[in-house]
Write a structure and sequence with these properties.
Elements: H1 8-27, H2 34-59, H3 67-81, H4 86-110, H5 115-134, E1 139-140, H6 144-150, H7 160-178, H8 180-190, H9 192-197, H10 202-228, E2 230-231, H11 239-249, H12 261-280, H13 285-302, H14 305-318
Antiparallel strand pairs: 1-2
Helix pairs in contact: 1-12, 2-7, 2-10, 2-11, 2-12, 3-4, 3-5, 3-10, 4-5, 4-10, 6-10, 7-8, 8-10, 11-12, 11-13, 12-13
């Protein structure tokens, strides 16, 4: 278990999260109301699943650009294939996500190309596929009972989507710590050649991260479509940038091998709280985007000299 001195960025993330909570509560008392906590959970569910999948690929030293487009496509598949049978639609959406993830991983490995190039091409293809599936008209969902079920609140503040997302964060964290595949994923991102020489299944680890990334993004899109009762080719348009911001803010290193799902969850909550709070106080969309970028910049810069200074001070206080 890392001490605060060994992980100063964790301190900064929590200070940022708690500080924003205090500020937004002071500016609008509704911020801590049960209804708003429920809305925060839904925001966490959507962004969290995409960010978790992206973070896994980053841990392995890769990057999946197709997550946002996958949200749109999977939502449309969910409603079109699940019009009469919701379970069939969900299976079809998840299977499509897994297959696209498998394609991303295999092409990246077998053709020895950058995952940025592979997933950029797939992102463009998925965006076009979403427009084709939509067909120029809104796609709606007539299973109102299921939509109502996913909009129910559990214990006053949790939604089924947020509970599913929290469970997946926990399971992913346990997988990384207690399974051979989890350790191989981290090893692949830490030092790929050394991991290969040590007998780690680097290829399998990389493909697994892309499959999970596709699955998580597809699940996010399918659950969003069920909850809203509709799907659109524009869903997920800004999710990729926010997911990358949440992962970096959560301590995932762009170089790979560093970071854990718990940190990503904190990063997602920081952005969810920021966007929700700014919306409550009437901030404009450009202002929200500007402050999102500022938070990410602060997090990146904090990993340099400020983090070193804080680390030194914390170690001094512990000694």
């Amino acid at each position: 278990m890392k001490t605060l001195a060994e992980n100063p960025l964790l301190v900064l993330r929590w200070v940022l999260l708690l500080g924003m909570g205090v500020i937004f509560t002071a500016l609008n008392s509704y911020f801590l109301a049960a209804g708003n906590i429920f809305a925060l959970g839904d925001s966490f569910a959507l962004l969290g699943l995409v960010a978790l999948g992206l973070a896994l690929t980053m841990l392995a030293g890769e990057f999946d650009l197709s997550g946002g487009a996958m949200v749109a496509v999977s939502g449309l598949i969910m409603l079109k294939c699940g019009a009469d049978n919701a379970a069939l639609g969900l299976v079809a959406a998840l299977a499509f996500g897994a297959l696209v993830g498998l394609f991303n991983g295999v092409v990246t490995l077998k053709l020895n190309v950058s995952s940025l190039v592979t997933t950029l091409g797939v992102m463009i293809l998925l965006s076009g596929f979403a427009v084709w599936l939509e067909g120029g008209q809104a796609v709606s969902f007539a299973n109102y009972d299921l939509t109502d079920a996913f909009n129910m609140d559990w214990f006053g503040v949790f939604s089924p989507r947020s509970v599913i997302t929290i469970a997946l964060f926990i399971l992913t964290g346990l997988m990384l710590v207690f399974t051979r595949m989890g350790r191989d994923i981290i090893a692949a991102g830490s030092h790929r050649k050394a991991a290969t020489m040590a007998g780690a299944n680097v290829g399998g680890a990389i493909v697994t991260t892309f499959v999970l990334s596709g699955l998580f993004a597809a699940l996010a899109g399918a659950l969003l479509a069920i909850t809203l009762g509709r799907a659109s080719s524009t869903f997920g348009a800004n999710l990729l940038l926010q997911a990358a911001s949440a992962a970096i803010l959560g301590g995932i290193a762009l170089s790979g091998g560093v970071g854990r799902p718990f940190g990503v969850a904190v990063g997602v909550m920081v952005l969810a709280v920021l966007n929700n709070g700014l919306g409550l106080i009437g901030a404009s969309s450009p202002a929200i985007l500007l402050l999102n970028g500022a938070v990410l910049l602060i997090a990146v810069l904090a990993g340099g000299a400020p983090a070193l200074w804080l680390k030194t001070r914390l170690r001094a206080s512990e000694s």
